[in-house]
Specification:
Order of helices and strands: HHHHHEHHHHEHHHHHHHHHHEEEH
Oligomer: single chain
GO biological process, one term: cytoskeleton-dependent intracellular transport
Keywords: Coiled coil, Cytoplasm
Number of strands: 5
Subcellular location: Cytoplasm
Organism: Clastoptera arizonana (Arizona spittle bug)
Distance between the termini: 116 Å
Pfam family, one: HOOK_N
Number of helices: 20
Strand order of the largest sheet: 4-3-5
Structural class: mainly alpha
Radius of gyration: 69 Å
Length: about 1150
């Protein structure tokens, strides 16, 4: 039995959670017993397959037989699903008996898991799989991963289910495991069957024994015989079964032997497969090596060609190196000039700052002058007041003095009392003292005014002197700037000449650049992306800076930051370009170093071969020396032999002379017979001969020996001469080879020296480039940090800008307030216009100087920009080349698009021609319909005239009847004047009913006529409704053959309109009505009839040439229209 923890783990597993998610009520599955019942699984199976093959799943209520039936039904349905719908073969099936009897055992848990796995595979592969996938998506992520693993076990592992698509991909190991599993199942089921048979046989034997024991011996022999027969039958069956067992065991042994044989074959085949795989791998390796060797051979050929090219280009490289050094020197000079210009710019900025400070001080002085002027005006007003008071006091004092004199005279004359004299004296003394005080104050104030005027004049004179000094300084600065401008112009001309030279050099360099364009294009695309990104960033920054400018015009720091950002971005772009150029140079140099290393290896090999040849040469020299020594010895021997030959010749000559002395001519002795006769005839000669014979024998021996030696020596001489000739030829060849080797050695040494120098220079260049690369990398990092700092500064500036905008708002408010205050001060400023005019003249002169300075600054900036443009012209030319290449590619793409568009247009043209033909056919049909409608309208016209006569007669009759009725009604009115109101209403209703009856009769007659015409129209042509609907779109009053009637009665002041058309799709239109003439005799009745026939309103296409004749006919027939208006008054 399985433990409780195993069952809980299984219930909390992914399969059971998925099963709960598929159920409508997840609380139904709480315990393992609910799952072991089989009903829940069957419900999920019904969601997968609503119409299963096998039914009969019922709640088991703890009955194991019902469980077995339930699980057997579920397993059969799952098997049919896999085999029939999914076309798959189930290899492993759960045991329904084990699930029914022992569901809580370990094997039962495994079978339940297998059943749920098979159910999950069906759910994922069925037509309703989207629903189950949505249920899976509602689970947690871990559960989803586990369910995906379970699905892979069913669909991909080939251990539980075999798919038809994966038959070829099934490996031998999987097939072997499946066979082992099937054999084990077969053996297990065979043992189970044998055990069941043994149990049956044992039960039969025990039953027979019991029967033998229980049955009486004498009474039931017939039954015993019957049982004996059955026993014999069972024994025969047992024998048969044993024989079958033996046969099957033999077959098993044979199959085991075959299995072992197959295993051996499989092992052999595996070994052969491994050998074949190894051979295939080796062959692949050999093929790869062959391909690699071919590629190497091709590369060698290409490299040889490139070596020749590079050797040719080495001279150009030296020229370019010299040119690069010159350009570097020029660059250094330009950098120095740039530094000088930057210093001058810093000085100019300082001067500008100083000028700004001076302007601020000038504004302060202006404010002080204004204040002093105001104070002076106030003092002048006070002085005027004091003057007026003084004049008044003088007048008063004079008047008082006159009064006092008059009073004194009067007092003297009248001799009044002393009290009056004392009062007049006091008054006069007081007036005199007050006048003296006022005079003193007047003098003091006049002195103060004069002193203030003198101080103001001195102050203004000092300010004017200072301003003149500053003016002189500024004029000197202007002169300096003009000189700098001239220098810059000269430098600009020099730069233009250098740029022209550089352009010439670029024309030469473009030939080399064309080979590297393919590599540069990829990098340029990446750079263009970075550039676009940076440009977007720059545009965003510029937009933000423009907003900041618009918000605060006084913020010059933002402009400086913008210029810094632009300069830094340009520097970044330049550094990127230089980095890319230097990386390309590094790659080139690495390639050249590799090529040089290869050349070095080749040269080392050539050196080794040369050394071998030198060793051979030394050996040949040794051999040559040996041969020379031999030749000297042979030469000595030859000289000795020559001497011996000379001696022998002398001896022969002596013999000849002795023979001559003896009187024997040599010619006669040439014949031996004559010589013997002569010698024998003379005895003296015989004596001499005998004497000489003894000597001749010795000499003969010596001569024979000498002849032999001579022959040998001649042979040796001939051999030695041949050897000497061969040795001389070899010596000449060796000397030539030696001279060639010496020349090659010298060339190799020179090439080695060159290669070593090139290697040293390349190593130095590599080191320099690596150092520059590291420095530029550091610069790049520094620039990144500076960019980050600038971004932070930009954010801070934004914040400051916001603050300044708020401050600006406050300042604008203050400004508005100041404007209001300035309006009040305009009156005071008007009085001091003269001083302002003087100040304005000074200010205008200062502004002129400022404008000149700004113009000079702008010219300086323009010159600097032009120099920058000249520097960037090279990069722009490269960019133009790239853009032209891109344009060429774009034009090619456009050409391809235009060709495709032409093809599409040709197809569209053909389709339009087909449409035109179809429209022509349609127009012909419309013309036919038009002619038919013409005929129909003419028929309707004739019919209409006949009906018109009938209706006129009817209308006249009705009018007569109406008049009679009206007369009767009027008589009735006169009679019923004394009657109540009820009878009057009856008469009115009667009149109304009569009028309605008359109108209904006319409308019914018209309706019947319209129905007849509609029937005729439907019988004549089925396409009239389309024509009438088209005519209804136009604002025509009616269709062919229609009538409009309007009835008007004077009592009710209303009109009834009845429009009846054949198509019933026309909008209601207001016909032309005529105003009735009211007669006093009785209520008028207006009847308005109109028949309009408009013919030929079918529109034709504008550009159809086939309709030219039909349009002429149509224009002639369009004028046919008939209008009939009938008015009848009563």
């Amino acid at each position: 039995m399985a433990s409780v923890t195993d069952i809980e783990d299984f219930l909390q597993g992914p399969l059971v959670t998925w099963l709960r998610a598929c159920l409508d009520n997840s609380e139904r599955l709480t315990d393992y017993e609910d799952l072991a019942d089989g009903v829940v699984i069957y419900e999920v199976l019904l969601l997968i397959d609503p119409e299963p093959m096998y039914h009969g799943v019922i709640p088991s209520l703890g009955n194991p037989l019902q469980r077995i039936r339930n699980f057997d039904c579920i397993i059969k349905n799952i098997k049919t699903l896999y085999e029939e719908e999914l076309c798959q073969l189930v290899v492993l099936l759960p045991d329904s008996v084990r699930l029914g009897k022992e569901p809580e055992s370990k094997a039962g848990l495994e079978d339940m898991q297998l059943l749920l796995l098979l159910l999950l595979g069906c759910a994922v592969q069925c037509p309703n799989k989207q629903r189950f996938i949505e249920h899976i998506k509602t689970l947690s992520v871990e559960a989803q991963h586990c369910i995906v693993h379970c699905i892979k076990q069913v669909t991909e592992s080939q251990e539980i289910v075999l798919c038809g698509d994966h038959e070829k991909s099934l490996s031998q190991e999987q097939m072997f495991t499946h066979i082992q599993h099937l054999i084990k199942e077969r053996d297990k089921y065979l043992q189970v069957w044998i055990g069941q048979e043994d149990r049956k046989c044992a039960g039969v034997v025990m039953g027979n024994e019991r029967l033998n024991a229980t049955t009486p011996s004498g009474g039931e022999r017939g039954e015993s015989q019957h049982l004996a027969v059955e026993l014999a039958d069972w024994k025969a069956r047992l024998r048969k079964q044993r024989q079958e067992l033996e046969e099957k065991s033999e077959a098993l042994a044979e199959t085991k032997e075959e299995l072992e044989h197959n295993k051996i074959l499989v092992a052999k085949l595996r070994n052969e497969m491994q050998d074949l795989k190894q051979q295939a791998r080796a062959s692949k390796a050999y093929r790869d090596e062959v391909d690699a060797l071919r590629e190497r051979a091709e590369r060698c050929e290409k490299l040889e060609g490139e070596i020749t090219r590079y050797r040719d280009k080495l001279c150009d490289m030296e020229f370019y190196k010299s040119r690069v050094e010159e350009l570097r020197q020029d660059n250094r000079v330009l950098e120095e000039t740039r530094e000088m210009l930057e210093e001058q710019l810093a000085r100019a900025r300082k001067r500008g700052d100083h000028i700004i400070q001076l302007e601020a001080s000038i504004l302060q002085y202006k404010q002080t002058i204004n204040d002093l002027v105001l104070e002076r005006d106030a003092n002048q007003e006070k002085l005027q007041q004091l003057y007026e008071e003084n004049s008044q006091l003088t007048i008063l004092s004079k008047s008082q003095l006159n009064n006092s004199a008059y009073e004194s005279d009067h007092l003297e004359d009248t001799d009044t009392g002393s009290g009056d004299n004392s009062l007049s004296e006091q008054l006069t003394s007081n007036a005199q003292a007050r006048a003296l005080r006022l005079e003193l104050e007047n003098r003091r104030l006049a002195s103060t005014v004069e002193s203030l005027q003198e101080a103001a004049l001195q102050h203004t004179n000092e300010q004017i002197l200072e301003l003149e000094k500053e003016k002189k300084k500024l004029s000197l600065q202007v002169d300096d700037l003009e000189e700098n401008k001239r220098k810059l112009m000269q430098h600009n001309t020099e730069l233009e000449t250098s740029v022209k030279n550089a352009q010439r050099d670029t024309k030469k360099m473009q030939e080399l650049l064309e080979t590297l364009q393919h590599q540069l294009q990829i990098q340029s695309e990446s750079l263009s992306r970075d550039k676009q990104r940076l440009e977007r960033r720059v545009q965003e920054l510029e937009a933000s800076l423009d907003v900041a400018k618009a918000q605060a015009d006084r913020l010059g720091e933002l402009e400086d930051a913008k210029s810094k950002i632009a300069s830094l971005e340009r520097d970044v772009g330049k550094l990127k370009e230089s980095l890319e150029a230097k990386s390309e140079m590094l790659e080139k140099l690495t390639c050249e170093v590799e090529m040089n290393s290869k050349e070095k290896l080749d040269l080392t090999k050539n050196l080794e071969e040369a050394n071998i040849q030198i060793v051979r040469y030394h050996e040949r020299e040794r051999e040559f020396k040996d041969l020379e020594s031999r030749y000297a010895i042979d030469h000595k021997t030859l000289s000795v032999l020559q001497k011996d030959l000379v001696a022998e010749k002398l001896n022969t000559q002596q013999l000849k002379s002795s023979l001559d002395k003896l009187g024997l001519p040599v010619d006669k002795l040439s014949d031996p017979d004559n010589a013997l006769d002569t010698i024998l005839s003379r005895p003296e000669i015989l004596k001499m001969v005998r004497q000489r014979l003894s000597l001749d024998e010795t000499t003969k021996c010596d001569l024979s020996h000498l002849n032999e030696c001579n022959a040998r020596l001649e042979v040796n001489i001939s051999t030695l001469q041949s050897q000497i000739s061969s040795l001389t030829s070899q010596l000449t060849a060796l000397q030539l080879a030696n001279s060639q080797l010496v020349a090659e050695k010298e060339e190799v040494i020179k090439e080695l020296e060159k290669v070593q120098t090139d290697q040293v220079t390349l190593q130095a260049l590599h080191e320099q480039l690596s150092v520059q690369y590291e420095s530029q990398r550091n610069d790049k990092e520094f620039l990144k940090t500076t960019l980050r700092d600038l971004r932070i500064e930009h954010r801070n500036l934004k914040e400051a800008n916001e603050l300044l905008s708020s401050v600006n708002e406050t300042l604008t408010a203050d400004k508005d307030n100041l404007k209001d205050e300035s309006k009040s001060l305009n009156n005071l400023r008007a009085e001091h216009s003269k001083l302002k005019d003087d100040f304005r003249s000074l200010f205008t002169s200062n502004e002129k100087l400022k404008k000149e300075y700004r113009a000079l600054q702008e010219e300086y900036k323009s010159l600097r920009v032009e120099s920058g443009k000249c520097k960037l012209s090279l990069t722009e030319l490269n960019g133009e080349l790239e853009t032209r290449n891109d344009k060429i590619t774009g034009l090619e793409v456009q050409v391809s698009k235009l060709t495709s568009q032409c093809e599409m247009l040709t197809q569209i043209k053909t389709s339009f021609e087909e449409d035109r033909r179809s429209l022509m056919e349609y127009v012909r049909q419309l013309l036919d319909q038009y002619h038919e409608l013409l005929m129909h309208s003419l028929d309707d016209k004739e019919h209409y005239h006949a009906e018109e006569k009938m209706f006129r007669d009817k209308v006249n009759n009705l009018n007569r009847q109406k008049e009679k009725l009206e007369e009767k009604i009027m008589e009735h009115y006169f009679k019923l004047e004394s009657c109540p109101a009820k009878k009057k209403s009856f008469g009115a209703t009667l009149v109304k009913r009569m009028r309605k009856a008359g109108s209904e009769l006319i409308s019914k007659s018209r309706k019947s006529w319209h129905e007849d015409t509609a029937r005729k129209g439907t019988d004549s042509d089925t396409s009239l409704e389309e024509v009438r609907s088209r005519q209804a779109d136009g604002l025509s009053l009616g269709t062919p053959g229609t009538r409009r009637t309007v009835y008007y009665s004077g009592d009710e002041n209303n009109s009834t309109t009845n429009d009846q058309d054949d198509s019933k799709s026309l909008p209601s239109e207001t016909p032309r009505t005529s105003t009735p003439q009211h007669e006093p005799a009785g209520p008028p009745l207006l009847v308005y009839n109109r028949l309009t026939t408009v013919l030929g309103r079918n529109p034709t296409p504008p550009h159809s040439p086939a309709l030219s004749q039909s349009s002429k006919k149509q224009s002639s027939n369009e004028s046919i229209s008939t209008d009939y208006d009938y008015y009848s008054y009563s």
